[in-house]
Each structure stands twice: as structure tokens, then as C-alpha cells.
Design goal:
alpha/beta; TIM Barrel; Lyase, Ornithine Decarboxylase, Chain A, domain 1; nine-stranded mixed β-sheet; five-stranded parallel β-sheet
């Protein structure tokens, strides 16, 4: 059986380091420290949304954010009563009703969002908790930052919505400092205009994990932390965060292969000699050699990745797995649910434990999670 193992000691260490850095930002004019909003989307970044959220609660985190209605409802059904922010806005009435009924803080980022929330609030005679989303250059949810007059006109007339926070989202904070500063200034300018027009902005937050670590001057009232808790970052880790999560499986088959024998799809590897191999019942569906950084770079970086992939096609695999403390090279292309590795000259048997360092976010949700 494959198991995604979460080392609780290391995860607790990461939470502590992140809280320490947040506290270094000082306090606001009300004496409050920077609030940590834990983003637990994508099945808790692969750690299991319910188990992960409860772990964070036990370690002093009390505010959470999700990306889908299903995630929000899953947490409520699990008995989690802490504040939950729905990061995506919606003008679909049925969805807003579901969020409101489950005491989820909604996001409003358009005139239509406000109209629906106002209608539901009036019908239920209830003040609807919400955060205002400003689009500072991401192109997804939120009021476009230039449309301040329209925004003010709409927000001045709300009666059944309570704005508890205002936020935006960086698109390149892990890489492009210049554009990140530009987005931040756009956000601050909008906040100033809203306040000048007596519109409540509430808690201000714009930093994701990378911005939280790189731009402490941008912490404002709160920060949204996701990947940093897992210690899996797209830039230098300077506060000692530890990588969370590794896949544990077992050797299910061992065999001898003759010289000149092909391994895996596309015949990308041919044995140069007689070899002894082990078969492991896991593959890219379990997150092995799956990466997330390829959609995060400039066009020329993507071209470089494509060229590297072509080169890799003609080279031997350099990915390794550890079996009983021994490093073993992966042979051929990784399959959906299988891996072949070289154990020539090694004392390895069927049933031996094999471990892969992987990003939990890419591990199939059907794989068992175990907190140790």
C-alpha cells in the first residue's frame, strides 16, 4: 500500500517559523499582530484538508481560506468552526446561499456579486460577511483596480454586506520584484481611495507564501500562507523551513533483465548489461517527478524546459528512490502507477520499504495520508 507520510515534527517546526516571522512585522494601530490565514485548498496542499486543518488549529492557526465550495463544506461537516474565507467570488445565487448558510466568509469582486449577496442578505434578514477582492493585475477575480469610481458607487450603497477585509493576489512575487511592487502600490492606492470615500476595507492582505517571505513591508494586517507551511518554495528558503511529505511504498516484484532489454513506454531506456530491477507500485499519479514550476515562468523559461525535456528523452533517468537507505536509479519513463528501478548489486528484497521525496499536492487523493 502506498502512503503519503507527513512528519508532524517538521510541520510543527514550519508553523513555528512562519508565526515567528509574522510576529516580527510588529503590530497594527490596534496592537494586533499580523494574522496568518492558512490556505488549505487542493486537499490541504495534498496533506488531507481535514487532518491538515485540525493540525493547524492545534498549533495556533485560527483563520483558513479555501478555493472551492466543496472544500468549505468539507471543513464545516468535519466540525471545524473557525473562520473560513472563500477566495473565489461567485454571482451564482445558489452557491452564495450555500456559503452563507454555512457561515463561510464570501469574496465579492464584481457588481453582480454584490447584487446577489445583497438580495440574499435582505431575504434572510442577515448581514453577510465578505472580503472585497481587488484585481491589481492578475486578470481573474476582483474589481479591476483602475475602475475606482464604479467600485465606490457600488460599495457606497451596500446594506446587507459587512466588509471584513480587502485583498489582492500577486502573480509573480516569487520571481519578479518590480511587478510585485507595482501590484502592491496599485492595491494601496485603491485602499486609500476607498477610505477617503468612507468605505470600510477591514483586514488588508495581499501576501501569498513567497511574498510573505520576501517582502515583509507588504504584510499589512494579514498574510495568506499555503506552500510555505510545506516548505516547498520556488525560491531560496532562508528561515529554515523543512520539506513536508514523502511517499512510502514497497517493492512488489524483482526480476533479472538481459542486456539490450527495453524498459517502460517509448523504449527510452535499454539495459546496457544484464541488470536486476525492482518494480514499485507507484507513478506520476502519486506525484513522482511531477513539478508545478513550469507554468510560473517567462516564455523563454518555458522554451528552455521544452528543450531540456527533449534532451532528457535521449539521456538516462537521473531520478532516484531510496530503498532500505540505498539510493536506486529509476529506469525508463515513470508510468501512471509503476516505477522500475535498478537494484543491481544491492541487497533488496520483495516487501522492502521504498521512499520518494515528492510534493504532496500532486499525490492522488485516494492515497492514504499518515501523520507521524
Amino acid at each position: 500500500m502506498n502512503t503519503l507520510v507527513i512528519n508532524t515534527k517538521d510541520l510543527r517546526h514550519n508553523v513555528k517559523q512562519i508565526k515567528k516571522l509574522a510576529d516580527k512585522s510588529g503590530t497594527d494601530d490596534k496592537g494586533n499582530h499580523v494574522k496568518i490565514i492558512a490556505v488549505v485548498k487542493a486537499n490541504g496542499y495534498g496533506l488531507g484538508i481535514v487532518e491538515y486543518t485540525k493540525f493547524l488549529i492545534d498549533n495556533g492557526i485560527s483563520f483558513f481560506a479555501v478555493a472551492t465550495i466543496d472544500e468549505a463544506i468539507t471543513l464545516r461537516k468535519a466540525g471545524i468552526k473557525e473562520d473560513i474565507l472563500m477566495l473565489s467570488s461567485t454571482a451564482i445565487e445558489k452557491d452564495v446561499e450555500t456559503l452563507v448558510q454555512n457561515n463561510i466568509i464570501i469574496t465579492i469582486g464584481s457588481k453582480e456579486d454584490i447584487e446577489v449577496a445583497e438580495k440574499i442578505g435582505k431575504e434572510k434578514n442577515k448581514k453577510i460577511r465578505a472580503h472585497l477582492k481587488i484585481d491589481t493585475g492578475f486578470g481573474r477575480y476582483g474589481f479591476v483596480y483602475q475602475n475606482r469610481e464604479d467600485m465606490i458607487e457600488i460599495l457606497k450603497n451596500i446594506e446587507n454586506i459587512v466588509i471584513e477585509g480587502t485583498f489582492s493576489h500577486f502573480s509573480l512575487s516569487f520571481f519578479d520584484d518590480k511587478y510585485t511592487n507595482k501590484q502592491f502600490q496599485r492595491f494601496i492606492d485603491v485602499i486609500e481611495v476607498l477610505k477617503m470615500n468612507d468605505i470600510e476595507t477591514g483586514m488588508l492582505h495581499i501576501c501569498n507564501s513567497s511574498a510573505f517571505l520576501k517582502f515583509q513591508n507588504m504584510h499589512l494586517n494579514a498574510v495568506r500562507i499555503g506552500s510555505a507551511f510545506l516548505g516547498r518554495l520556488s525560491f531560496q528558503n532562508f528561515i529554515g523551513l523543512k520539506k513536508i511529505g514523502y511517499l512510502e511504498t514497497q517493492v512488489t516484484e524483482i526480476k533479472e533483465l538481459p542486456k539490450g532489454f527495453n524498459i517502460g513506454y517509448s523504449n527510452t531506456y535499454t539495459t546496457p548489461k544484464q541488470m536486476k530491477v525492482a518494480i514499485l507500485p507507484c507513478g506520476y499519479m502519486n506525484g513522482i517527478n511531477v513539478k508545478s514550476d513550469r507554468d510560473m515562468f517567462r516564455k523563454r523559461d518555458k522554451i528552455r524546459y521544452i528543450l531540456n525535456d527533449i534532451k532528457e528523452f535521449f539521456k538516462k533517468q537521473t531520478i532516484e528512490v531510496e530503498i532500505n537507505g540505498q539510493k536506486c536509479k529509476i529506469l525508463g519513463r515513470i508510468g501512471t502507477y509503476h516505477v522500475v528501478c535498478d537494484i543491481t548489486g544491492k541487497n533488496i528484497n520483495i516487501g522492502d520499504i521504498a521512499t520518494f521525496s515528492i510534493n504532496p499536492k500532486f499525490v492522488d487523493s485516494n492515497v492514504r495520508r499518515e501523520y507521524r
